[in-house]
Design brief:
Helices cover 38% and strands 14% of the residues. With 336 residues, it is of the alpha/beta class.
Length: 336
């Protein structure tokens, strides 16, 4: 007499556990502008000795530490660099206003310029818009060196940095009158810090446009968020949609604006997202229940730091990304 094997309803619905894995965005880490800045400063140090960037050459602490051993040490000002014995100073990849060249000339020190050409493009555009009679609004962090540099090149009292409408010197639409009402001028132009979130820029632009265009106002939006920033944000969106990530790690320096924006993009898509500088910042509690971890990195983050984070996750049982982190074309130059 044979006995048939019974299968419980629960057994039928049970699924094998999902494999713990790491997936990476198809655009992440060093951008062309950062590689260019590092090539310039390292070649200068190798050929001519010590150089003092005024600020961090890029916003990544690991890179800044490595450059120090090669004679590249940041200084807060030209005068501080001179006091420390430097005869050469450098403009960082974020750019700086024209005052730095004037200070370097007055101190009789050599000036090396590593400004990203995409930032230089914004500086020149700001000058053009001011010449055309626009009040200039720079969407970005007022204390960021790039924003300070753009305002410096604009060289006008008719300019302001803002991240939200409340930061502006106006609180009313054109045509509105009343006690305490301050409306914008007739012509207003908006540019952006190159590393901002395009969705947030567009939200701000719509609000500003509503204030400016009534009563014959003229509003001009210039989306100056750089291609590498947009590419990294879009690549992260594709990663989440394609692989259904349970968590995102955005790797980059604490000062890195574009890395912070990547974490914001992940959170806006409903995925727990964390901005970390180093692998030891990963909280084990974040990994509980996370089977697919998405990795992205800011434009100032070197590949070996990304690889260290991947190795930390692999040690905790996650399968490494297929094909490694990414392919690098050393001859790539963007069409800016």
């Amino acid at each position: 007499m044979s006995t048939a094997l019974s299968t419980s309803p629960d057994a039928k619905t049970q699924q094998p556990p999902r494999q713990k894995r790491i997936v990476v965005a198809d655009e992440l880490g060093y951008c062309w502008g950062v590689r260019r800045a590092l090539d310039i400063i390292q070649e200068a140090a190798q050929k001519g000795g010590r150089v003092a960037p005024i600020g961090d050459i890029i916003h990544n602490p690991q890179v800044v530490e490595r450059l120090r051993s090669k004679g590249v040490e940041g200084a807060a000002s030209v005068q501080e660099a001179v006091n420390r014995g430097f005869r050469r100073v450098a403009i960082t990849a974020h750019g700086m206003g024209p005052h730095l060249a004037e200070q370097a000339a007055a101190a009789r020190v050599e000036l090396i310029d590593t400004t990203c050409p995409l930032v230089t493009k914004v500086q020149r555009l700001a000058q053009k818009l001011v010449r055309q009679g626009y009040f200039l609004v720079v969407y970005g962090d007022a204390d960021h060196p790039e924003v300070k540099g753009v305002l410096g090149w604009a060289n006008t009292s008719k300019a302001v940095a803002a991240k939200k409408i409340e930061d502006l010197p106006w609180n009313a639409k054109r045509g509105e009158e009343g006690p305490g009402k301050v409306a914008p001028p007739r012509k207003v132009a908006l540019v952006s810090q190159t590393t901002k979130n395009v969705d947030e820029l567009m939200k701000f632009a719509r609000q500003l446009q509503e204030m400016v265009v009534p009563e014959g106002g003229e509003f001009r939006l210039c989306n100056t968020i750089c291609e590498p920033t947009s590419e990294r944000q879009n690549a992260l969106k594709r990663l989440v949609e394609r692989d259904g990530c349970d968590m995102i790690l955005a790797i980059g320096g604490r000062k890195s604006s574009n890395t912070a924006r990547l974490a914001e993009v992940g959170r806006a898509m409903g995925v727990p997202s964390y901005h970390i500088e180093r692998p030891d910042e990963i909280d084990p509690a974040w990994l509980e229940g996370a089977t697919t971890i998405g990795i992205t990195a800011g434009a100032s983050t070197p590949d070996d730091v990304i690889e260290e984070v991947v190795a930390r996750l692999v040690a905790r049982g996650y399968a490494p990304p297929e094909g490694g982190i990414r392919k690098v074309d050393p001859d790539y130059v963007p069409a800016y």
